[in-house]
Structure formats: C-alpha cells, structure tokens
Amino acid sequence: MCILRVSVIAALAAAGIAFGFAAGDGTANNPYQISTPDHLEAVNDDLSAHYVLTNNIDLSGRTYDSAVIAPDTDSSNTGFDGTQFSGSFDGAGYKILNLTIDSSVYFLGLFSGIIDGGEIRNLGVEDAAITACDDAEYVGGLCGGNRGTITNCYATGSVSGGDNSHYLGGLCGINLEGTIENCYATGSVSGGDDSRYLGGLCGWNEGTIENCYAAGDVSGKDNSIVLGGLCGMNKGTITNCYAAGDVSGGDNSRGLGGLFGGNEEGAITNCYATGKVKAGNKAEYLGGLCGGNEEGAITNCYATGSVSGGNDSEGLGGLCGENQEGTITNCFWDKETSGMEESDGGTGLTAAQMKTQSTFTNAGWDFADSSAANEEDGIWLMDEKNYPKLNVIVEIDHKN
User: Fold this and answer.
1) 182: left (phi over 0), alpha (psi -120 to 50) or beta
2) Given this model, what pLDDT does residue 15 score?
3) Among 43, 49, 364, 369, whose CB has the most other CB atoms within 10 angstroms?
4) Where do the structural domains in the chain lie, given as residue ranges?
5) Taking CA 233 as the corner, what is the angle to CA 232 and CA 235, rounded to the nearest 5 degrees?
C-alpha cells in the first residue's frame, strides 16, 4: 500500500541534527565509518564525502518514504529536487538488511541517484522491499539512477510499482552513462498496467554493464512495454551478462525478452538468457533473448527459455521477436526448450547441439581450457552436459 508520511530524513535535516560517525574525517584516505542506521542516514549531511561500512546494518522497524541517501524531495514528481550522491561508499563486503520503502515519489532505492564521480562498491542490499505507487519512475534496489560507478554490489528482495510505472530495476532503475560491473540482483521486479522499461538488473541502460546477472522474475500487466530479464531497454553496452528469471506481461504487451526487451543502437556481447517469456493476448515482439533489436549489434549470445503469447499475438521468436536493421552474429536458440522454430535472427538448434562445445567454438566463441593451468582464461566454460556458462562472472565476497 502506498502511503505518505513525514520523511525521517527531511525532519532531521530541518532540525539541523547530524549524528556523526564512528570514526573518520570523510576523506578518501580516512573515510567516515558507518556502523549504525543513524550513521547511514547522516550520509545526507555530506553527499560528496567518502564512507565505509564497518558491519552489517539492519533497518528492520524503519519504513522510509524516500531513498535513504540523497532523497528526492519533489513530492509533485515533476523532476528531481535535491542533491544526488557524488562521493564514494565502500560496503567493505557488508550489507544493508531489510530496507523498506513505501513511497509516492520518484528516485527510490538505498540511494536516489549516483552522479558523475560517485562510486558505490562492495555493498549488498538484502531483503529489500521497495514499493512505489502509480506513475512511479526510477526505482531500484540499490539506486534509482546511476551516472557514476557501481562495482561488486548486489540487491535481493523486491521492487514494485503501480500502473504506468517506468524505469524499474532489481539493482538500478536507470543507468545513464554510468558503469555497472560485477554486480547482480535476484529480487522480483513488477509493475502494473501500462508499465514500461522494467528489468531484473536495470530498467534502462545507456551506459556500460559488464560481468553481471539477474535471477529475479520481471512482470508487468496489460499494455506493458519493453521488459527484460536483465534490462528493459538497452542503448548502451552490455557484455558478459546473463538473466535467469522469467519475464511476463498481460494483454497487448510489446517488446519482452529473456535478456532485454529492446536494444536500440546498443551492443550486446557474450550474453545469455534461460527464463521463460510469456504475454497475454494480442502481444507483439517476444523473444527468448530480446523482444526487439533496432540498429543494434548482438554477438555471441544464446537463449533457451520458452516463448509464448496468447491469441492474436505476433512477432514471436526463439531468440529475437523483431530485428530492424540490426546485426545478430553467431547467436543461437534452443528450438526444443523454447518451443519456437523461428526467430528474426540467430540460428535454431536442438538441445543436443546446444550442449556441444564445438557448436560454439566453430562460431568463434572463446572458451577456457578446463584441462589447462590457465582455466581462468577464456570467456565461456562448458562440460558437454549443459549449456555454455560465463567463466568471467565473479562471485562477490560476502561477509556474514
């Protein structure tokens, strides 16, 4: 349920209260040390300083009506009002637990937004429950928007919006010219009717995403547009990533893909999707990997998930629903598991062929030599019993 309440952060700021920190002076060599929820909220006193977590922080019992750090104070939702984060925040392998946001404003997440020069690293956001109202925009488990750098971070839990929600992602709502590297999200992402640009990791990408994955389901209702297991819309670069969650929309939905809903002049390389893609009646452009590819480049990718639409649906493909003047090179889909014999681009293969390494090495894919000492070299790994997996996905070091 969406509610309005006096913001804890705004009230503290109005009263001129600052909590201080456990230690540090906010410089890069001596960052402020954060060990309590009050310390975390006090980051708002200086959004350009440097910070480090010294332990896990449990936010149980606190419900926020805005982002915890750098909140949007524009209740009219005509744009962002406030200052976004430009400092550095090192989670040091620790995590923020049980973040709860119930809000009617834009730019939701632990951070509202990260701007040029801002950096978030080595941080987990676990069991978040972020609920936005109708017309929500820019919502993610970690941040609503990113123009900075996010490295070695993850988010779990749920991100949800009402009708006409835009730019929702499991980790980041929108990535504009920012970098997201070695990150993942496993939570569900959902919107209501008329939702657009929803993704398991990121709703909209115009930056760089590398060595990342998403495992949560992504869902919209009727008239939903551009939903993807990893990203809703991509206009940037996505490399060495995968998505495992299911993607679904209601009647009249358009542009749904196992990895991304739409790719406009973007580059997708060394990626795959395994989730199911399903929509209701009169759906258009559904694909195991991508719903639509417009003047984009997709290289060395595959999809295995089933693709289905209701009555009067069109533009369904095992790999791609619609390809408009784009290039799809050395890409494959499993005809058996997808239930699709056709695709607007790519090559359909049997399950046995998809589990044979020579299928991919003959297409120029770079595999690690599992028998050699340098097994870490090479982008892909395969054991001949399963589909190719990415060898370059790095496991994030979690502290208890």
Assistant:
1) left
2) 33
3) 43
4) 1-216
5) 150
